[in-house]
Amino acid sequence: MGFSLDAAELDIPCPRCRFFNEVTIKQVRTRDVVICRGCKSNLRLDDHMNQVRVAERQLRESISALTGSLGSLLAIDIKL
Q: What's the pLDDT tens digit per position in 4-50?
């Protein structure tokens, strides 16, 4: 299944000026540096303990389980 959270956006506050900056989950996952739009300081993003990767895997497993459950509910056995 080709599922990715990379394009999802988050608003994170600058620790210096508290201005909210929009970043993508991919930027967090790859530990990018973004510039605060409020005070222009560099913000180094951190995916602490690979939480993004863990959440994405859990979400993928949940969707797979749901698809399997729905598939078994919707299965129609036709005998001719």
A: 788 999 999 999 999 999 999 999 999 999 999 999 999 999 988 89
Q: What's the CA gap between 42 and 56, in Å, rounded?
A: 27
Q: What is the pTM (predicted TM-score) of this model?
A: 0.69
Q: What are phi and psi of 20, to 5 degrees?
A: -85, 130
- Degrees to nearest 5, angle at CA 48 with 41 and 5: 90
pLDDT, one tens digit per residue, over 1-17 is 466 788 999 999 999 99
Rounded CA gap, 30 and 32, in Å?
6
Query: Where are the chain's structural domains?
Result: 9-73
Amino acid letter, 79: K
Beta strands in 1-80 (DSSP E): 9-13, 20-24, 33-35, 42-44
Q: How far apart are CA 8 and CA 26, in angstroms?
A: 8
